[in-house]
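Re: the pair you flagged

First of the two:
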Amino acid sequence: MAGFGLPNFGQLTEAFRKAQQIQQDAQKLQEELDAMELEGKSADGHVSVWLSGNQMPLRVQVAPELLSGSSEAAEAAILEALQNAYELSTSTMRGRMEELTGGLDLNLPGLGG
C-alpha cells in the first residue's frame, strides 16, 4: 500500500533542514543586531543618540552649547535624534529580517504550500 497522501520523506527532510537553518540564521542575526551601534542625529548636529539594531538605547551625546540654551530647544533636538536613531534601527532590523526570510518556501504538500 503506497501513498496514503503523505508527503515525500525527502521533501519533509529538506523542509526541516531549511527550518533549522533559518533558526540558526535568526539567532546569528539577533547577535548581529545586538552588536550594532546605529546613530541618529538632530538636524542641527547638536545631539546624537545611539541604539542597537534591536532598539536598545546605548548612549547619548549632547553638545554643551545646547544645554546652556532653552530647555525646549534641547528637548526638541534630543527627541529628533532619538526618532532618527529609532527609524534607522527599525529599518535596519526589517531589512535584515527580510534578507533572512526572503527565500522561505517550505512547499510542503497538503499544508497549503
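Second of the two:
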Amino acid sequence: MDIGNQTLVTQFVFLGFSTITHGRIYLILLFLAIYLVTILGNFMIITLILVDSHLHSPMYFFLSHLSCLDVCYSTVTVPKILSNLLLQRHTISYNHCFAQMFFLVAFSGSECWLLAIMAYDRYAAICQPLRYSHIMSPHVCMQAAIFIWIWGFLDSAVHTALASKLHFCGNNQIHHIFCDLPPLLKIACGDIYANQITIHIATVFVGLGPFLFVVISYFYILASILRICSNSGRHKAFSTCISHVVVVTLYFGNGSVNYNQPSAGYSLETDTLISTMYCIITPMLNPLIYSLRNKEVKEALRKILESHRRI
C-alpha cells in the first residue's frame, strides 16, 4: 500500500483505562502501592544477597537477576500508566511505544530462560549433589547470566525491527494498557506474515522451550526426592524448590493466558486484567514468595534488622 495515501501515526491511544471516570484516584493509589512494593521488595532481595555471605550461592545469584528483571519489567510499564492516569490522558508517542515494547519483550524473554536456568540449578543441587559445585561453578553461572540477558535483547531486537516496518493507516487505538507486540499487530495494516512467523518461532524458543526445560528438570527432581528415605530429607529437598515452583506457575500460567488468546480475543476488561496480572502483579509477588517461603532469606533479613537496632 502506498505510504503516501496513509495517515502518519505519531502517537498511540491506550483504551485499557480510557473509560474509567470514577474512582481514578483509587486506581492511581493502587498502582503506586504495587509499584513501591515491587521496587522495595526486589531491592531488598538484591541487597540481602549482596551483603550476606550465606546467600553467595548459585541459587541466590540467579534470584538476584530475577529481582533485577522484575524491577526493570515493572518500571517499563507502571510509571507510564501512572502518568497517564494522573494527567487523565491515555497516549504514548510512536517512539516511546516501540521503546516500551522493546524492553518489555526483552525482559520477558530473559525471565523465561532465567526461570529455566534456576530449575536446572535445583536439579543439579538435588540430583547431582557431589558434582554441584562443578556443574554450577561461578564461571558457569556468569556465562548463563550473560546468555540470559543477551538472548532476551536479541529476540526483542528482531521483533522490534520487524514491527518498525509496519504501517498503521491512521488507526492508533491500542486495546491494551501498554505497548506490546500482539496488540500492535492487531491494528497494523498490510502484511504481518513475517511478524507472525517470528512470533511462532519465538514462542518455541523463548516460551515453550524454557517451560519444557523446567518440567523435565522437576521430573528428575521429583524422582530423586521420592528416593530419599527420611521424611525430613524429603521435606528439606522439596522446600528448596517450592518458591521457584510457585513463581514458575505464576509466570508461565499468566504468560500463556496473556499471549495465547483465542482467535476472537478477550474483552477489553478481561485483557486489561490479564495484562495487569502478568506484567504488574507477578513482579510484586516474586520477592514476597521468596522472602516468606525461604528460611535463609528471612534469617538474612533478621540479621540486618538486628544490626541496625544495635546501631
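DSSP finds ten helices and three strands in the chain.

-B.
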